[in-house]
Automatic annotation (TrEMBL):
PANTHER family: PREPHENATE DEHYDROGENASE, PREPHENATE DEHYDROGENASE [NADP(+)]
ACT domain residues: 295-363
Protein's UniProt keywords contain Oxidoreductase: yes
Enzyme class label: oxidoreductase
Pathway recorded for this protein: Amino-acid biosynthesis; L-tyrosine biosynthesis; (4-hydroxyphenyl)pyruvate from prephenate (NAD(+) route): step 1/1
Phylogenetic classification of the source organism: Bacteria, Bacillati, Bacillota, Bacilli, Bacillales
Keywords of the record: Amino-acid biosynthesis, Aromatic amino acid biosynthesis, NAD, Oxidoreductase, Tyrosine biosynthesis
Family of the protein in this entry: Belongs to the prephenate/arogenate dehydrogenase family.
Entry protein name: Prephenate dehydrogenase
Length: 363
């Protein structure tokens, strides 16, 4: 039996547990510091066993996944180094920053166990085991940050196990990881929170702000609902990178101030053109549970029952729809429905079928 111990069975730990549980020869043990959480892991069927004992979870494990907030990783690395781990055990983490945990693991003595840092580039603004999903990592990138001295066979063994997540494994140096992920994940979270709090302030004087907030505001601020402790730990941990990025961000904002002060419409237009061109050539490979799965959009007349009609049509063709969302619905314009699917094949067949029956499909 391959024993996988998961410390912190929340959104990420729970999603990993779901990927591994029930696979041939695998048993998954979940660890929580709280009795009630351990009981919940079992109740929800996410793990085979659950315990509050670090020793019980770790001993005899072939793989240990640390899925707790970044600020708690160092103490787990230390505590694990005090145990008699199974020879050849692979310890990995899923923390959103990689340099500090790599440094800390380099200092620790794990006997013949090894540490390989990891970070799945998938997630959501939701948290806890309730938000875990078997599909979370499918098609996403999963970063590994092995030390140059780590024997390849361990990296291969972890990579082989992670195949159950259906993610694409990439190797990145820990410091490089923190710089890049600072820009494409941590900074956007700061911007989203600052923007929501700005509007929250305005809204105290006039509740029309929140009432009128539509798709644009929601799209750019979804991530502001992330778990406060998880994000506190990430931002504090990646402080140096973020301070530099925030300076660059401020320069970008100053540039917009300059464009507007000088009424330089041409510069504004260029900024949108450049951003749009860059964004459209980015690989659309993101995966999530509700968002950015495999999506297409269809123009629909704004009349009652249209959602049911489209859903029935897809159902009749055995096409699995995972989400349906009205983006615009006013009397004088056609509405747009966003249709999400979990598989490329479902999306392809939906595009074909909806096109056949006369819908304008965009993807
Ligand atoms: N949320 C995301 O989108 C995302 C994506 C990739 C990686 N990560 C990383 O994954 C890790 C877990 O994040 P999550 O989103 O699954 O959070 P979560 O809140 O859903 O899960 C965290 C788990 O850790 C436990 N926990 C919290 N504080 C703890 C402590 N002090 N000691 C022991 N256990 C504790 C919680 O009970 C929970 O089981 C973090 O390191 C985060 O940086 C998050
Ligand atoms: O999709 C989201 O909601 C996320 O916040 C996921 C996200 C990201 O910023 O892209 C968040 C943290 C991670 O460590 C990796 C992915």
């Amino acid at each position: 039996m391959t024993k996988i111990a998961i410390f912190g069975v929340g959104l990420i730990g729970g999603s990993l547990a779901l990927c591994f549980k029930g696979k041939p020869g695998i048993t998954v043990v979940g660890h929580s510091i709280r009795e009630s959480s351990a009981a919940k892991y079992l109740e929800r069927g996410v793990v085979d066993h659950a315990t509050t004992s670090l020793r019980e979870a770790a001993e005899g494990a072939d793989f240990i996944f640390l899925c707790v907030p970044v600020g708690s990783l160092a103490s787990y690395v230390h505590d694990l180094s005090q145990l008699d781990l199974k020879p050849g055990c692979i310890i990995t983490d899923v923390g959103s920053t990689k340099a500090s945990v790599a440094a800390c693991a380099r200092e620790a003595r794990f006997g013949s166990a090894v540490f390989i840092g990891g970070h799945p580039m998938a997630g959501s603004e939701r948290s806890g085991v309730e938000a875990a999903s078997l599909y979370l990592f499918e098609n996403a990138f999963y970063v590994l940050t092995p030390d140059p001295g780590t024997p390849q066979r361990y990296v291969d063994k972890l990579t082989e196990l992670l195949a159950y997540t259906k993610a694409h494994i990439v190797h990145v140096h820990p410091e490089e990881h923190d710089e890049i992920v600072g820009a494409i994940s941590h900074l956007p979270h700061i911007i989203a929170v600052a923007l929501v709090n700005l509007v929250r302030g305005y809204n105290q004087g006039n509740s029309l702000y929140s009432q009128l907030a539509a798709g644009g505001f929601r799209d750019i601020t979804r991530i502001a609902s992330g778990d406060p402790v998880v994000w506190r730990d990430i931002l504090v941990n990646n402080r140096d990178v973020l301070l530099k990025l925030l300076k660059d961000w401020q320069s970008g904002m100053d540039a917009f101030v300059g464009m507007l002060e000088s009424e330089n419409g041409e510069a504004v237009e260029t900024a949108f053109e450049q951003a749009g061109a860059f964004r459209s050539q980015m690989p659309e490979r993101r995966k999530g549970m509700i968002h950015s799965i495999y999506e297409c959009y269809i123009d629909v007349p704004d009349h009652p029952g249209i959602i049911g009609k489209v859903a029935t049509e897809l159902g009749n063709s055995a096409i699995n729809l995972s989400n349906i969302h009205i983006i615009e619905s006013r009397e004088d314009v056609p509405g747009v429905l966003r249709l999400s699917f979990r598989k490329q094949d479902d999306l392809d067949r939906a595009i074909e079928r909806l096109g056949e029956i006369g819908y304008a499909v965009h993807f």
